[in-house]
Structures are given as C-alpha cells and as structure tokens.
Design a protein that fits this description.
0% helix
Length: 107
C-alpha cells in the first residue's frame, strides 16, 4: 500500500448514482472521494457513532447538516457530527468532487 495518492486519479462518474472511491481505510479513519455530477444527490443519512467531514475540492454543492442548509464551493469544509443527518446535492453545472473523511473507520 502506498501512503501517497493524487485524488485526480480516483475521480469518476456513474450515471445512476454518485461515484465513490476509497483512498485510504483503517480502523481509525476512512478517507475517500465522492463525485457528484450535476443534479446528483447523496440523500440525507447519519452515521450513529462516526463523525464525517466533506472538503470541497472542485465544484459547488448544497449541503444539509441537521437543520442547517448552505451552499459550499472549493476550499470549504463541512462537518457532520455523529448521529446528525447530512447530505449534499450538486446544483451546479460541473462535477462536484468531495474529499470525505469518516472517523472512526468502518467496523
């Protein structure tokens, strides 16, 4: 396993739902990419015992965390605490690429 990766080599698309790619995974952290084409949505969901962050690498999305809704573009960080519903929609004209971290990692 390499400890160095370029996220651009792991982006992609799926016409039926948003594209996911795992960059690194351990018992302590999952780090991956979510790529959403215009109009695609990651439906609101929660992780009962895991915090999650989205770091916007490319594009712009409409994020929901709990009762809060906000647009965020490249360079923004969105944090969803464990147990809080969160989701995102690409309402823009270009691909939305998100670096996603979930901790602790999947069991």
């Amino acid at each position: 396993m390499t400890h160095f990766k370029n996220y651009r080599a792991h982006t992609g698309s799926n016409p039926d739902k948003f594209f996911k790619s795992t960059l690194f995974q351990s018992a302590n952290l999952l780090l991956g990419l979510n790529c959403l084409e215009p109009g695609q949505t990651q439906s609101a969901h929660a992780h009962g015992d895991q915090d999650k962050f989205y770091f916007v690498l490319e594009g712009e999305g409409e994020f929901t965390v709990g009762d809060e809704k906000q647009n965020a573009g490249a360079g923004a960080v969105v944090w969803a605490p464990a147990g809080v519903d969160h989701g995102v929609t690409n309402a823009g004209a270009h691909r939305l690429v998100l670096l996603v971290g979930i901790a602790p990692g999947p069991k």
